[in-house]
Amino acid sequence: MAQAKQHFVKRVREGFKRWSLKKKAIVSILCGLLILFCFALPAKLFDAPTSFYITDSEGHLLNASIAADGQWRFPFNAQVPEKFAKCIVAFEDKRFWIHPGIDPVAMTRSVKQNLQGGKVVSGGSTLTMQVIRLYKQNSRRSVWNKFIECILAVRMECSYRKKTILALYASNAPFGSNVVGLDAAAWRYFGRAPDQLSWGEMAALAVLPNAPSLVHPGKNRNFLLQKRNGLIDKLAALHEIDATTAALAKLEPLPGEPKALPQLAPHLLGRFKKDHAKMQQEAAGGLSTGIQTSIDGALQQQLNRMVAQHHEQLKGNQVNNTAAMVMRVETGEILAYVGNVFEPGNAAMESHVDVLASPRSPGSTLKPLLYASLLTEGTMLPTQLIPDIPTQIGGYAPKNFDLGYDGAVPASKALSRSLNVPAVKMLQQYKYQRFYDVLKQTGFSTLTQPADFYGMSLILGGCEIQPFELAGVYASIARMYLHQGKNKNEWNSNDWFMPSYQKQKTKGAREAKQSSRQPESKLFDYPSIWNMLNAMNEVMRPGEEGLWNQFSSSQKIAWKTGTSFGFRDGWAIGLTAKYCVVVWMGNTNGEGRPGLTGINTAAPLLFDIFRALPTAAWFETPADHFTMMPVCSASGFRAGMDCAKTDTILVSESASNASTCPYCRSIHLDRSGVYRVNESCESPAAMQHRSWFVLPPVIEYYYRAQHPDYYLLPSYKAGCSIESGKVLDLIYPEENAKIYVPLEISGEKGRTVFKATHRNNAEKIFWHLDDVFIATTDQFHQLSLDPTPGKHRITIIDKEGNSASREFEVIGK
């Protein structure tokens, strides 16, 4: 085989050597022309900038922006409506489907007409030749240019299918003014997509590219009417349409001035532009500037109206900005996206800012994640009492929103009521460094500082997150929970991803778009998520006084509000098994306003949105990896031997780490049941043995005010020796507190009120400041003092010798 090949090459060389110089020159020229013909067209004919646009899930236009060169030019669309194909072929090139790029019949007729008329009457150009002219951007008509167009048209027919050539024409033909391409023309002149146009409308567009500078809507109306009706008659003659359709088409009005394109999701279009720039860089170009989104067009318009209505109610309080987003939990698809109130003519509103993509202080919206983290760890139970008392941690003193204290509150109630002090207590138990790692793993990308930068304030909004990512995290939690059966109760990182606005073409499309920040290890177990969702469902809804759950038609929603420091941000996040909704209200410039709280501003809009969505069933009980644990009814801790009454609740298997109840203990009463006794003063046979719920003194002080049914420990019977234990404590100040005492209105120096508590209301307390006796209190243990600036020590003692003390510092001017 190799020998035969070598023999053939040798014969060709010998034959070429015998050719004459003239013959060699002719063959070389022909070969060169063939090469030029083959490479006469580039791989991509058109590279002009195109408009960015987005459509909803049904293909309806949501938003578009003008191209960088000031033209309305949509990206190439390979799908040409049948009506336009018939109209343009009938009007421009009736033998388009059979000629090889040039039409000899049309060319001959054109030459004859031009010679007879003594001027250019017709050009004889085919649609393929017109595509070449658009590509070369050569408007000058000459014999040479026409010859080049013919050659290139034939070349194009060798590489492109007829439908593609027609699509190239439809996407790049001028339609008057600054409108280029059929898609842009249909929207600019008729406000609809091309495939929704009638015969009369399509015929009007088909005649525009023939003379776009002379004939366009708004000018030369009679000439345009004649052109259009002439085309309609031609379509009827070719039997493309019947006589009735032709007659009705002629009655249709001509297009007027260009229409404004829809502006239904301007901030989503802006988000797409930013994402496109990044994807374009990664993909080295070639990406379309248009995209079909997952947006539900009807829901998007409804959300726009609801946001506008709520904004009208709030802007009187100078709350200028609102954002909301609805997403489908199962797929992560965004169904409606309002990045801000859309008022482009009002610069002061800063409506151009997409708040959904902006880092904002989250307020209390991260508390459920801490709650679930502690439950997953097993060191806290769902209804376990958490201290709610004045607290100071390294100079940080959190306060509840109402500035009050409950003494102790069940963890689930602390979450549903969004109490700050119990949340800080829980974070103190879990450690803020660990919780910071949890937040990073969930996908929050804006925690750019180390954990120590945020410290304990992390749980109360001392960081910044995007509403977009907040919705993604909560939807991922719900999705993970819904897939527990499919995942066989194991953690599947593929179920954890951020929202997507691109419509998923195939079932497996989601896996290709997963967030690169998906957690690799388990963050929350299913029983913990179940308890978290139920605690979030217990929150009283705005305007319904907690009576919503008495109506069977009311939908269960797991939701949480948040308010940032200084009333700058109002948040609401809500979940059902199908939908996740996030709402933000505030001012993009960070200005706080009185009453700007999540419950007052964002929550009402949240529930209006859920009322517009289909009702979803509540989450099912976990199927596995849980245990039913008896807990103390009074404290919510794991039931111990001394708990008088217990409840059984569903908890994680890890709850075996939970502590037994520290507040229930067995006490001995005398025969009457009035006094406490012990062996020093009462015979065991005469004792009554009771289980008693006893809180530490400071917790008890605040708890009693909220719980009238709380029973104090009985006093010891006279003559009994008193058992050791903490019976008194200081309520204020906290250990190492720094106190600043401002001047009174009168100008006199103010005083500080010190507070203490004792289990026995009748007991006297003796107060000492810096080891110097200063006063005695009885029943109401409060003392007004005026310590000098500097460090001090306050000490209290009762008559039995029990004592408590605190170090504090008074700050001068």
Mean pLDDT: 85
Global structural class: alpha+beta
Instruction: Return the CATH class of the domain at 52-251.
Output: Mainly Alpha
Q: What general form does the structure show? A: elongated
Q: What is the CA-atom radius of gyration, in angstroms?
A: 40 Å
Number of helices: 23
Distance between the termini: 104 Å
Strands in their spatial order, largest beta sheet: 7-6-12-11-10
- Sheet of most strands: 5 strands, antiparallel
Q: Total strand count, please?
A: 24
Strand % is 15-25%
Poorly predicted parts: 511-516
Topology (elements, then pairings):
Layout: H1 2-18, H2 21-38, E1 52-55, E2 61-65, E3 72-73, H3 82-92, H4 104-117, H5 127-136, H6 143-159, H7 162-172, E4 179-180, H8 182-190, H9 199-206, H10 221-237, H11 243-251, H12 266-283, E5 290-292, H13 297-314, E6 321-328, E7 334-338, H14 367-377, E8 385-388, E9 407-410, H15 411-416, H16 420-430, H17 432-442, H18 451-454, H19 467-482, H20 509-512, H21 526-537, E10 558-563, E11 569-575, E12 579-586, H22 598-612, E13 626-632, E14 646-652, E15 664-669, E16 688-693, H23 697-706, E17 728-732, E18 737-740, E19 752-758, E20 764-769, E21 772-778, E22 782-785, E23 790-798, E24 803-811
Parallel strand pairs: 1-5, 3-4, 18-24
Antiparallel strand pairs: 1-2, 6-7, 6-12, 8-9, 10-11, 11-12, 13-14, 15-16, 17-19, 19-22, 20-21, 20-23, 23-24
Helix pairs in contact: 3-9, 3-10, 5-6, 5-7, 9-10, 10-11, 13-22, 14-16, 14-21
